[in-house]
């Protein structure tokens, strides 16, 4: 099902996984689902992001923006006053010791050049292999 943003439920969930730095199986476990297929089925488009899944995500990760889960409205992760406002609105207790989410984002950003170099090398190897010795 496409949202106002044009994103499908699978795309929204994929963005949340990336923002939280989780994979489908680890999120499934963190959300304490008995079935190992709950999150993967949403990612494959077999199921939608139900109200229950959205609530579990936000209750487990209070910084995930409920509006992003519902309609794809950015930001994905909330901080500061927006985080507190959502917690108050949804009656979600915030952890007492919560590190700044920006540090996670900085760590992800720091490895981008290294990843890009690896991708560039892999692409060059593929191109060299495809050209073959005849060229």
CATH architecture of the largest domain: Orthogonal Bundle
CATH topology of the largest domain: 434 Repressor (Amino-terminal Domain)
Shape: globular
CATH homology superfamily name of the largest domain: lambda repressor-like DNA-binding domains
- Per DSSP E runs of 2 or more residues, the count of β-strands stands at 0
What is the radius of gyration computed over CA atoms, rounded to a whole number of angstroms? 19 Å
Q: Largest sheet at a glance? A: none
The stretches of 5 or more residues where confidence is low (pLDDT under 50) are: none
Number of helices: 8
Note the gap between the termini: 48 Å
What is the level 1 CATH name of the largest domain?
Mainly Alpha
Sequence-ordered SSE layout with sheet pairings:
Blueprint: H1 9-20, H2 24-30, H3 38-43, H4 51-60, H5 66-71, H6 80-90, H7 101-110, H8 112-131
Task: Explain what this protein looks like in three dimensions.
With 135 residues, the chain is mostly helical. 61% of the residues lie in helices and 0% in strands. The longest helix is centred in the C-terminal third of the chain and has 20 residues, at 112-131. It is globular. The mean pLDDT is 86.
